[in-house]
Amino acid sequence: SFAPALLADTTYYWRVDEIAGSFTNAGPVWSFSAVALPALAHRYSFSEVGGTNVADSVGGPAWDGSLPNGGTLVGGQLTLAAASSQYVRLPAGIVAGLTNFTIEAWVRLNSAGGWARIFDFGNNTTTYMFLTPTNGASNGRLRFGITTNSAGGEQQITGSTALSVGVWHHVAVTLNGNTGLLYLNGVPVGTNNSMTLRPATLGNTTNNYLGRSQWPDPYLNGLLDEFRIYSVALSRAEIASTYALGPNQVLSNESPPLTMTTTETQLILTWPLASAGFTLQSRTNLALGGWVNVTSPQPQIVGGQWQVVLPISNGAPEIYYRLAK
After folding, report:
1. What contacts 117, CB < 8 A, 6 or more positions away?
2. What 3-state class would DSSP assign to 62?
């Protein structure tokens, strides 16, 4: 049997040959094409009880990770001890082919070591991408970096602070075209509008770590509750939603219900928090014209759901609303 970890949107060819003494009887060539990755490509929830493997509940067993030096899996959380050089190793090529992307995690530090890694995907100290909870500067900060020319060639996004110790944080990095955003607890804290490198630029990376660096930096000393890789750049609203939803619930692509309530002067529209990727639209005639995005006011998270409050005007025409994606 042969069960490789397949790359998305890639064509594979194979054949089976028979070796008969000094002769080789070549079999027919077969091929197939892997489909594009879903938006949520990989998800590690660390829900195992003990053991040395962590499952990818979205990508499947071919993308399961391992704990080469152990780790503690309890209650849906993974504890990594820096003193024991503990980390997660993920399969080769896990970010190969990604251009736009989102990587997010829930992490709690037990201690802060400069340049420790939340993740580091690469081949060596020349080619890699990483997220550190605190860089080595005197005012250590959250930082994402990607390079094909070692530290001197890094394209970086630096946050406003480091991660505090002993507190759970949601961290995320997105890349959409040339714009990279770094998030802390659902809020953007760093931007770089000149990003030209992306995971696909790194090729089929072989050293893909959670909690370990390509460099001889400290190992992560803390806990991971959830780690996700998306093949798209989540929007600011979607990042805010994933933070608010917490580590146990993901965004939904199902058609959401749209609820309407009114006061004498206001129309209040609400829909589920997990449906962050949907856009509110309106029109005044179902036979003529088209749907128009409602751009003001922007949806807000209120009471665990998305909400838009619109004024009601006397004598205004009928208006129809929907959610679209």
Report:
1. 130, 131, 132, 209, 210, 211, 212, 213, 217, 219, 220
2. helix
From first to last of its 325 residues, the chain has per-residue pLDDT tens of 776 667 767 889 999 999 999 999 999 999 988 776 679 999 999 999 989 999 999 999 999 999 999 999 999 999 999 999 999 999 999 999 899 999 999 999 999 989 999 999 999 999 999 999 999 876 789 999 999 999 999 999 999 999 999 999 999 999 999 999 999 999 999 999 999 999 999 999 999 999 999 999 999 999 999 999 999 999 999 999 999 999 999 999 889 999 999 998 999 999 999 999 899 999 999 999 999 999 999 999 999 999 999 998 887 788 999 999 8
Radius of gyration of the chain (CA): 23
- What are the CA-CA distances from residue 14 to residues 25, 153, 318 (Å)? 14, 38, 61
Alpha-helical segments (H) within the chain: 199-202, 236-245
Q: Do 235 and 243 form a contact (C-beta atoms < 8 A)?
A: no
The helices-and-strands tally (H runs, E runs) of the chain is 2, 27
Cα separation, 103 vs 182, in Å, equals 10
Residue 268 to residue 282: CA distance in whole angstroms: 14
φ, ψ of residue 165 to 5 degrees: the values are: -85, 145
Cβ pair 154, 143 in contact under 8 A: no
Structure tokens at 94: 């896990």
Structure-block tokens of residue 279: 């856009």
Q: Give CA separation, 188 vs 39, 145, 228, in Å.
A: 21, 16, 18
Omega of the bond leading into 311 within 30 degrees of 0 (cis): no
